[in-house]
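Key idea: predict the complex, not the pieces.
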Amino acid sequence: MRSGELRVFVNEKPVSVTRGATVRDAVEVFDRELAGLLVSGAAHATDGVGRPVDASDPVGEGGAIFRVVVTARQGPPRLSKDLLRRWPKAELHVHLDGCLRPQTMLDLARSQGIRLPADTPEALARALSVQGSRSLEEYLAKYEITLSVMQTAQALERIAYEFVVDAAAENVRYVEVRYSPALHRPALTLTEAVEAPLRGLGRAAAETGTKTGLVVCGIRTLPPSVSLELARVAVDYKDAGVVGFDLAGAERGHPAREHRAAFEYAARHGLGCTCHAGEGDGPDSIHQALHDCGAQRIGHGTRLGEDAGLLEAVVERKIPLEMCLISNLHTRTVASLAEHPFKRYLERGVRVTLNTDSRLMDGVSLTDEYFHAHAGLGLGKEALAGVVLNACESAFLPEYEKVALVARVQSELEAL
Ligand code: HPA
Ligand code: ZN
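Result:
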């Protein structure tokens, strides 16, 4: 094999492609006619673990496995990633410390004299990938690496700016991004750690037209007094771009109710409240988030269905779930995409939304999440458009701004 070439497998046969080739290129080497069917939608491809892939996806690593089958299925043609990228979208659940560009990490590490596990963008993305994690705790360990280069105001500002530019490039019209200012001490004070990303978000919003909001996270494994301190600083910046308060971190054994004072403070002063729950632990954790902490939205909520009464209450109260399909696979919250309850909850009337959680570590874009909901879970165009609007309607925005966002996105969706 020549250098710069990769060997991947299509329907169990090895084929050589150049680095950076797409799935379509690999299938074309295997069988030109089959590639034509793939592009026209008459054949579909999956990866080595059975997840749907788009013809335009990169093949990624040497040794990657693809299966392509011709479908006799009649029905509407599959939505391509290209089309879903053009859809206007909104995202409510994404971690700033999970969304760095690999090249930016390398630049920051070089200028700050920090050693990273790899020295090319591709190798770094591989080293930070959470594919193959065995639990939420193992998944969260990767954040220590990204956080290591995020301990200056300039770094935080640049990362926030670039994140919004990247989200805008896939037509995200509104995004709430979250992080915990406490994880930037002692290098920065809490106010410095809030002002820096706000500067980046403001600059990117002005340039791209994408609306942004910052969500401050308490951390379950830190003392509740730190969560209260964080809620206070979040409230101080309420009119300067902070829109909400969240609780993140290892879930099992670290109950949300211990952080109730922070939620109370945030809610009393008009911030939106959300809480990661039902991801690393069961429905009782969701119950605590809603009933002890007064969360208005739930981060993930994947295990909600284990408690029928709670599911009913979530439907009745129109509590939005910020769901993240691929992240749930990586944390082993679900065993496979096919088993993910997203579609079940949607059909049951839950206000579900789609989110990335972490673009870098999970290796997904918001477009990818919509593609997986479509190609993996079978959601059609109408249902997916409803999910986009669910996200807009669940934004932590004043009512009049929310109405404007919903109207804008709805008319863009109709014009497609
Ligand atoms: N769950 C809890 N805390 C987190 C996560 C998550 O998925 N990602 C980053 N912090
Ligand atoms: Zn999260």
